[in-house]
Model the fold of this input.
Amino acid sequence: MFKPLSLFIGFRYTRAKRRNQFISFITLSSFIGIAIGVWALITVLSVMNGFQSEIRERILGMAAHATISGISGTLTEWQSIDKFIEQQPHVEGSAPYVLKEGMLTNASNVHGALIRGVDPKEEKSVSEVYERMYSGSYDALNETKYGIILGRFLARSIGAVVGTKVTMVTPSANITPAGIMPRLKRFTVVGIFEMGHNQYDANMALIHIRDAQTLFKMKGVVTGIRLKLDDLYNAPRISREIEGKIDGYHRVIDWTQHHANLFRAIQIEKTMMMIILSLIIAVAAFNIVSTLVIVVNDKQADIAILRTLGASPGMVMRTFISQGMVIGVVGTLLGVVSGILTAQNIETIVPALESLLGIKFLAPDIYLISDLPSEMKWSDVIITATISFSLTVLATIYPAWRASRIQPAEALRYE
Done:
């Protein structure tokens, strides 16, 4: 598209000392605007990727990659299904569970909770709750009959600590001579966990699966089986494959279905942020239009001389396109380099700024995630650079076309 002479002249116009200082100012502002826009877009997208990964890890630290459950809400003959699943490719761990709702009371404090019955040994293969103990012992579930582990905020809301006796009230009831009475059971708090996600820390309680089966009258059956896969991003495909191999009617639900709304909202927010920040690049790119329009008016005599020497309209157009592209390419490269450096070092830069300014940007007592995580993806860098370069090229077309339409006789009439 570009011949060496067009490039040469375009570079000369870019490097030349300006008689019109206003042109130099607009050119500099275009450089800076494009660089800032690209830098901001790469940095913000990297931070949003970091937040998304952090939230995903915290959710999946407690939730399974996939779950197998019965159509009726219970899973019979689950032992044979569990053995079959463990032999399947891509499955790294499986654990049966019982999931019910209940109320926990301690003195005058009452709070609803999701009660999950787990096998402590098997549960280690599908969740990280044993690594996130705030106090007490995870293994105490095996050692204590009717022991319970509470989420940190759930324990705080009912005023419980390790060793506290709490009462669980279940939705099922006993029929007695005195009438229908709710089923009550005293549990001993043996541990408190903190996953860093309010959905679990404020609402989840773990008990041994044998105690859950006794309490909820589910002897020999479970709610389902939780799975851990070798690749969580392929969970939808692997789940469908597993579902097709199991005899009978079962539901296999992966983590993307359980938390679809959350991650869809994050993705929409990321897309909108990309569009908004791209407007910064667009504004800077349109500064190139102003620059080239003024340059074309300033260089009419030069253009006329080139035309009389045999330059074609296409050559003139390529000359000014190359001049605008120099501005865009240099600004984009500066923005990409600074964006990559910032994204890769943001976990060092932000604490330094907090220390210098004496403030905490994300207070740990208010926000779920108190640090700014960053995960730079090269695909985001490439997309950002492509957007910047494309807007730059589009911005040069109209001024370059106007330059190619200049008639030598008209331009040189008053010279």
Observations:
- The chain has two domains: 4-58+262-412, 64-256.
